[in-house]
Specification:
Shape: elongated
Helix content: 40-55%
Strand order of the largest sheet: 7-6-8-9-11-10
Number of helices: 26
Strand content: 5-15%
Largest sheet: 6 strands, parallel
Radius of gyration: 28 Å
Number of strands: 16
Structural class: alpha/beta
Length: 678
């Protein structure tokens, strides 16, 4: 136990560094960072277990920051443990800096998650806690880490907090400790002006243990963390009553604490006096970017202690590996990040099925071959056909993490963020399913998964207006365009930020799933049909299964006449409609080529010669899409036309909708003839 005066001194050091970073950048959020300094200092100086020399150690505790605007607090704390130097802190929010305005995942530097959109960060922590429980069931005590989360008033208000809190309580995640920095201040108002709920009662109702403390008292924080660590069968919420801008003063030395103005701008801009504040906290206004010698000694001692703990743990793990070679091999393989070994020959598709049914067939095989895979569904497993996986395992439940299926309830955004948290934890391959139209709820999470380059598998079924009788509320029209934009957006590594695949029959679905499982660098979106689709024809002497392998190049020729005068382009179920139209067009004397492009992003990575083979230059192009015409604009271009949907859907049987909306072989023939002036 550290001396309380020294603990306050260390927290004040964090406050000074946080305020100085924002002051120098002339931009940022100092107030919350100053208020939260006591908690994060106590956590890092006495509780958080990590290896200072092996930051990616799989057994480490994890700290997930939800309010990314409090990055100065995290950067300052990480500087105390040697992860950042003073020059890097001085570059907060600057070009090329490792200290961006909101933290971005960098495990080597101690940052476990990218944070910013409030509510997602602590939900990632819940997902990580689920992953740890799941892995502990399979690997044992080596996965006995604690997951810590830090949330603010804004994160508590975001609706996703309900899903995260409900799921964590329902599953009894006693390896999860969340600190709520309750300072009653947000960006433009005080919290009590917009919110009067009883947060403690809400979390207790979800099954959490709730502790309320003075969040500026290191003794109270230590006692709460100790009690939380000892709690069994419940996650713990520590409500820390803190002070926005703690330690801030005006030029005359009077308190400038508890002000809305210090939330989102430098102290000097808020009306406080930066120099007076630094002096008040024991620092030098002329040299605020320094670590106090006694605080450095505190953390030198802590790092020495952690190195001793890490050395002992390495010895324990070595003994465990010798006694449990199979488990040790799994641990290394699962955290290694490589794609799992799968015998794809075991996938036997029934012909002419819906691609959601084909996905179920694949999932049933993955459930038996990929031991570290978790699949989730937002109360739709029997409709999005993720039950193909569920039937070979069982649902995760309180006290039983031996299954591999997560049932988060009707909570698409929560589900997506839980899967992201699993991926951030490592060792787990997460996938989640729902109707494609509900990808709207998930888009903020998909974006974060893309930004963090996490290989989450998003399974979206009921991919078009052919949902039918459910009507326009359930019929995706613009959703494919929204998700395919992510193929055009590059991540930090220069890759397409999401791999988007809309397979056109059962065999291509198998290939799409293989591509998804082999994609370890980005999220994958699988867009699947509700209705049955006729399998595409295979070239002479080749099976359809073999022909579908060409989908790995993003686009390929399905069939082609000699010297075609028009190329027909589609993906998903519309490809089979083009195939049905081919005899009608040939009967009109029209020579054609049909090209399937399940992933434009992947297709555009192919050599130009191959692209020209799939999309021949100098001839007319016709595109067919069940979504917005813009879906195919990059493939069809100006030398052709696109038949798509420019309105919301309608309620009717899907075959009626095909007829009414022109998604028939006969209309394709009509449109192509018009394009060619026949």
């Amino acid at each position: 136990m550290n001396d309380k005066q020294l603990m306050t001194r260390a927290a004040d050091n964090i406050r000074i560094l946080s305020a100085a970073m924002v002051e120098r950048a002339k931009s940022g959020h100092p107030g919350g960072a100053m208020g939260g300094a006591d908690f994060i200092n106590t956590l890092y100086s006495e509780f958080l277990i990590f290896d200072p020399d092996r930051p990616t150690w799989s057994g480490r505790d994890r700290f997930f920051l939800d309010p990314g605007h409090m990055s100065p607090m995290l950067y300052a704390q990480l500087a105390l443990v040697g992860k950042f130097d003073m020059e890097e802190l001085k570059q907060l929010r600057q070009w090329g800096s490792p200290t961006p305005g909101h933290p971005e995942v960098d495990v080597e530097r101690g940052i476990e998650n990218t944070s910013g959109p409030l509510g997602q960060g602590h939900t990632f922590a819940v997902g990580a806690a689920i992953a740890a429980k799941f892995l502990a069931e399979r690997l044992g005590w080596v996965m006995s880490q604690t997951i810590y989360a830090y949330i603010s008033d804004g994160g508590i208000q975001e609706e996703i907090s309900q899903g995260a809190g409900r799921v964590a309580g329902h599953l009894g995640l006693d390896n999860l400790i969340m600190y709520y920095d309750a300072n009653n201040i947000q960006l433009s108002t005080k919290v009590d002006e917009v919110d009067s709920e009883d947060v403690a009662a809400k979390y207790r109702a979800w099954g959490w243990k709730v502790l309320s403390i003075d969040g500026c008292d290191s003794d109270a924080i230590r006692a709460a963390l100790t009690e939380a660590k000892a709690t069994v069968g419940q996650p713990t919420l520590i409500i820390g009553r803190t002070i926005m801008g703690r330690g801030a003063v005006a030029a005359d030395g009077s308190s400038f604490e508890d002000k809305v103005s210090t939330h989102g701008q430098p102290l000097s801009a808020a009306g406080a006096d930066f120099s007076a504040t630094v002096r008040h906290l024991g620092g030098d206004p002329e040299d605020p970017f320094r670590i106090f010698p006694d605080v450095q000694a505190l953390y030198d001692a802590r790092l020495s202690e952690l190195r001793q703990l890490a050395a002992a743990r390495r010895e324990e793990e070595a003994r465990w590996a010798a006694e449990n070679p199979d488990r040790a091999a799994k641990l290394e393989r699962w955290f290694g990040g490589a794609a799992p070994s799968i015998d794809w020959s075991k996938v036997e598709q029934k012909p002419n099925q819906a691609t959601r049914a084909a996905s179920a067939t694949v999932l049933s095989v993955l459930a038996t071959q990929v031991e570290n895979m978790i699949v989730a569904s937002a109360d739709l497993s029997n409709s999005d056909k993720t039950d193909g996986f569920l039937k070979k395992t069982r649902a995760l439940s309180r006290g039983d993490f031996g299954g591999a299926f997560l049932q988060p309830g009707v909570a698409e955004l929560t589900m997506a963020c839980l899967c992201i948290g699993m991926a951030l934890h490592g060792g787990v391959i997460p996938a989640c399913g729902t109707f494609f139209v509900f990808s709207d709820y998930m888009k903020p999470a998909v974006r974060m998964a893309a930004l963090m380059e996490l290989p989450v598998k998003f399974i979206w079924t009921h991919d078009a207006f052919r949902v039918g009788e459910d009507g326009p509320t359930h019929e995706p029209v613009e959703q494919e365009a929204q998700i395919r934009l992510m193929e055009k957006l590059q991540n930090h590594s220069g890759r397409d930020s999401v791999l988007v695949l809309r397979p056109c029959d059962v065999e291509e679905t198998t290939v799409a799933w293989r591509m998804a499982m082999e994609n370890t660098h980005t999220p994958t979106a699988l867009i699947l049909s509700r209705q049955n689709i006729n399998d595409l024809p295979a070239p002479e002497g080749q099976t359809r299964r073999a022909a579908a392998e060409a989908a790995t190049r993003g686009g390929y020729v399905v069939l082609a006449d000699a010297q075609p005068e028009v190329v027909l382009i589609a993906n998903g179920s519309e490809v089979s409609t083009l195939v049905e139209a081919a005899p009608l067009l040939r009967a009109e004397g029209i020579r054609l080529q049909i090209s399937a492009v399940p992933s434009e992003g992947l297709f555009r990575q192919q050599p130009k010669e191959y692209q020209d083979e799939v999309l021949p230059q100098g001839i007319k192009r016709f595109g067919l899409t069940a979504g917005l015409p813009v879906n195919l604009l990059g493939l069809v271009g100006d030398n052709g036309s696109i038949w798509g949907l420019n309105s919301f859907g309608f309620s009717a049987p899907y075959k009626v909708l095909d007829e009414k909306l022109g998604f028939t072989a006969q209309n394709v023939c009509t449109q192509v003839k018009q394009l060619l002036g026949r």
